[in-house]
Design brief:
Length: 98
């Protein structure tokens, strides 16, 4: 049952928030009322490190609008991640724990 939960966007998002908090950071859900396609979470870590994270269910890809936002942020030299599997989430958490 737990494996199925970590395949859903909601399950991955819950784990992201819980683990980021354990690492001393915060994972803010950005209200996207006027910015359709903006990444789901802004992860703010100690030391001034900020990451934009687009959460997807396993096997899903960002929409065209989401891809535009990802490209915009990358062009501004921001760290943007798309997380759609438990393994990708583990890699991201390992990266931000440094």
């Amino acid at each position: 049952m737990r494996k199925i939960e970590l395949r859903s966007e909601k399950g991955l998002d819950r784990r992201l928030c819980k683990e980021v908090l354990k690492l001393g950071g915060i994972a803010i859900k950005y209200p996207t009322i006027h910015t359709t396609g903006f990444p789901d979470r802004i992860v703010i870590m100690p030391g001034g490190r900020t990451y934009y994270v687009e959460m997807k269910s396993t096997g899903k890809q960002p929409s065209p609008t989401q891809k535009v936002w990802i490209k915009r942020l990358l062009n501004l030299d921001h760290d943007v991640r798309v997380v759609s599997t438990s393994e990708m989430l583990s890699e991201f958490l390992k990266h931000i724990a440094k």
